[in-house]
Known about the structure:
Elements: E1 2-4, H1 5-15, H2 28-44, E2 50-52, H3 60-64, H4 82-92, E3 96-98, H5 105-118, E4 123-127, E5 140-145, E6 152-155, H6 157-164, H7 171-178, H8 193-203, H9 206-211, H10 218-224, H11 228-238, H12 260-269, H13 273-282, H14 289-295, H15 318-331, E7 333-341, E8 345-359, E9 362-371, H16 375-384, E10 390-393, H17 396-404, E11 413-416, H18 417-424, H19 433-441, H20 449-473, H21 477-497, E12 499-501, H22 503-528, H23 537-547, E13 555-556, E14 559-560, H24 564-569, H25 575-598, E15 607-608, E16 611-613, E17 623-625, H26 637-641, E18 646-647, E19 653-660, H27 663-672, H28 675-682, H29 687-696, H30 705-719, H31 724-731, H32 735-748, H33 750-766, E20 768-770, E21 776-778, H34 787-823, E22 829-834, E23 837-843, H35 847-859, E24 870-875, E25 882-883
Parallel strand pairs: 1-2, 1-4, 2-3, 4-5, 7-10, 10-11
Antiparallel strand pairs: 5-6, 7-8, 8-9, 12-15, 12-18, 13-14, 16-17, 19-23, 19-24, 20-21, 22-23, 24-25
Helix pairs in contact: 1-2, 2-4, 7-8, 7-11, 12-13, 15-16, 17-21, 18-20, 19-20, 21-34, 22-25, 27-28, 27-33, 27-34, 29-30, 29-32, 30-31, 31-32, 32-33, 33-34, 34-35
Amino acid sequence: MIIDGNSLAHRAFHALPLLTTSQGIFTNAVYGFANMLLRILSDRKPQFVAVCFDKGKITFRHSDYGEYKSKRKPTAEELRPQFPLIKEFLQAMCIRISEYDNYEADDLIGTLAVLSERAGMKNLILTGDQDALQMVSPLTKVLLTKKGITELEEYTEEKVRERYGVLPAFFADLKGLTGDQSDNIPGVPGIGPKTASVLLQKYGTLENILGNLAELPEKQRGKIEPFASQAVLSKQLAVLIKDVPLQEEISDYTWPGADYKKLIEFCGKYEFKSLIRSLTQTGQKPKNKKQARDTGSLFKEAEYAKTTSDDLYPVEKPEDLETLVEEVRRAGCAALAVNGSFDGGAERAVFAFPSAGETQDGPEIKTAVFSLTGQGLKALKAICTDRSIDLIAHDGKKLIRILKANGITIGNLSFDTMLAAYILNPGLSGYRLRDLALEHLKEIIPGDEDSSMLTSVRATCRLADILKDKLHLQEADELFYKVEMPLVYVLADMESAGVAVDREQLADLSDELARKIDDLTREIYALADCEFNINSTRQLSQILFEKLQLPVIRRTKTGFSTDAGVLEELADSHPIVNKILDHRMLAKLKSTYVDGMVSLINPVTGRLHTTFHQAVTATGRLSSSDPNLQNIPARVEEGRKIRQVFIPRQKGNLILTADYSQIELRLLAHLSSDENLKEAFLQGEDIHTKTAAEVFSISVVEVTNQMRSRAKAINFGIIYGISDYGLARNANISRQEAKQYIKSYFERYSGVQEYIKSAVEEARSKGYASTIMNRRRYLPDLFSPNKTVRNFGERTAVNTPIQGSAADLIKLAMIRIHRELEKRQLQTRMILQVHDELIFDVPVEEMKEVRELVKDCMENSLVLDVPLLVDLKAGPNWYEVREI
């Protein structure tokens, strides 16, 4: 197989959106190239493989024709640094690269094809360049890339003749007449592919056509004759050189299969997690010779992390378990993994702990496996409740919840490798143990369950020491040990408690939304004067842009865009548009939150047990799923009414909500030290009214509701780096007005403007932005050559300390509240956290005490230059809460 490296790299780059690693290295071309190559190698299983690249920009063709390829755009700045990475990938694949000065990749392809044919070998050329079609023969086929990185078209001699009307041997003659726009080969003006193929079918070659010009119709002769020499030059430029003086023999391109370990390390280095997942499956050793023959292999023998019988601590009789507990106590720490579920508990436990022996990787790690019945459960409980043992886990919250079903309350969880990895680099898309083991230990965790549990828990044990050192170097000890680790227990209890749901109210809400959707559907049909599928982008675009003749805002590959942004721009163009937006919103509420919630109610508890994610967002904020309570729309009444279904767990209880008031603006005042902003909060003024007075140069009493609304848009917009264009849209004002408002704002709040400037400069200097608790967010976008990406990085540098510090504050408050509730042995439960709001299920008799407790913990979680303020409300459900 002969591969056009340049062609595939460009194809991959343009087919995929820009991807970067957490360190800002562009990788979309590398990822696409790797995917294409691995797939084709797996399908075709070649014995010999060569990847050819251009070397330098100037070749002999430029000497022959100075304008050769002159109209091509320069290689994109984001693509250029990816070529060395592609070659690094090929080295891991053990594939030989071919590149020579003064020759293009096409010429190397042509030469290799001829040499292999002489050896009687069949060839397959993979490229996106049609010039390679001239090499098609009984022994050589060409695979042309068509669309994206997945569609390929195979060309045989017959396929070339059918498509272009000439045999492959005369493909360069065809280009001599038609030219090639991509290479700036001129050809003959006015001669297209159809005319050229007819002439070549009759005369055979370009030279024969030029030798018989007198026979051609006058019109054709008039086009060709003046450009005869140009046609000959064009053919010469299109002909592939087939005798490049290669230093290698064909046998040098024998492909032994990829180096599995190097390939996995490469994928880990550049954060290709999906590739790692597929490779760790593909790289499994065949079970027998037949499977090896059937599946073939991309790899040399794979290297896995192994657990030998010498590493296993013997657990065969009850006294072995007692000895194991003592061994773990002597070690002082142990990693634990279990298999099981939240409802059914765990069936088996696997421990890993350091022993007295030493290896080249550090202390010798012993593992122990035992079932959780009788003595096994007793031994596990002894270890999990012994404060002299530091328990290590990967995803400790999950472990706590599973073992709770076994009647075990973990009291000594001290280190969570998932959370440690998250703190070290919160920009990753996930923190799977097998990815961390590969990155930090250079170990591959096998896919089968038994081996996986053993090697996973060993990896967890070894990872802990490595990640502890990294946390210390990053000055993240306080954040990890005082915020994230204690929060694990808080979230586990919140998930276990769940939130009660009023099923009747949920059903009524579903019916109400269904009626509203039906009403909107009829109104939309009436405005369109026909019935159509409102959820069909194609049918909707036909109604809006063809039938109703609304202006086209944006086109897509398949037609006209009807996304939310487009519809919002069209909202004033026709009454149907707002109806469609409302229809979409209500349909989303009904399907996702109302009807979708029913299947998530636990049949045993009758409650929703949402899952809180501690290691997902780059800012440090929590997120949730099943259901995602963070995304329930609160700006529309129908969205707010969903909160009606969240009720206390028993009669005599109330729902209490505690919401930080303007937390991000208060943090902006603290971080910027702007005297005007600080003074407003210290004096308890309405910050939006004060801002309106400052911006419009009027007294506070003269501020109108509209002015306050615009000031509010400015205040919150500043945090997110809003532009005059964005403010104009949000506040429904002209861009010139927005520009003036922003200018006036910074004149009054100069400290904020200085903070924005210094935040960007500091982040660019350090490579990251940080919060009050030194939570770091790395910002590779700040160094992007793309201005749009770079601007986004600058906005993130300003916002991260604010939004991330808000996350730190509420987490600290949650920990304090949880401890106080336990200490006072109250029946109140903290059940939800949504953005800057905490929700509690409170017995009426505890309300006064809990209200004061919550307010104190939240308002004093950290001392700032301005006071923190919490709004407290209570009621029979989350929707009907009122100030207390």
